[in-house]
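Its record is retained below.
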Amino acid sequence: MPTIKRHQECNTTLEAELTQLFAAQRHQGNPNASAVFQEAIHALLMARRPTLSGENLLKMVGRCTFEAEEFRAPKASHTAERFVWLTRLNNLRISDQGVTRGLNDEERQAVLPLPFTQAKVTYKQIRTKAVLPDTARFIGVDYWKKCKEGSNELAAEDAILFEAKAFHGIRKVYEKAELKTEWARDFGHPDRLDDLAYAQTVFKDDQEAQQWMQDKGIESAIIEAVLNLSFSDFVRLSIKALRKITPLNRPGFRGGHLV
């Protein structure tokens, strides 16, 4: 539900409850339930601090660890989600007949698109897509637990390794708004996806978000669709820093995790 409409509905409910409360108190003969006092309480309850949004919110978020002039990136940005995914892949370890290793180049290339073609990536999907041998096991997956439960130990690989939640959240609102053609254009453009995530993370007022997206040249139909999304949280690095680091996220380079 868009932010402005949600606030309006909350105000309406609060006013109705306040009216009922004072009416009940006057009916009980409470001398302190006068209309003047009710009006004063009403004014107090309806007074709201300005929403922490835009530049005011960014000041609370802080600056990038490496690019001191840049603000931290929204966690929902495509650039941040992709960086986390690449880091997960680099940290993934496989044990096979006494040898522990990471994914090789061919296996890595096979699984790279997975988070952006399906909602959740499991270890089983990694095994299938990378065509791992039957003897391979993922380090960190609790196979023994499934054995104790009487299940096939490979059922443990149903565990989720990664989800690109924001990416698929944006995809779904495009599809719900019947913007499949626009999605086919935008899903491969990190700049556009980063802008959408930024708008719905930084601006907590629909009008601010709408104006910011309009200034970025985003079409009205897309703006209306993504206004139904709301993101929060930031990572420690900026978009600028992430884009510099991402090319280094190759086999053998194990960057730090974002938190």
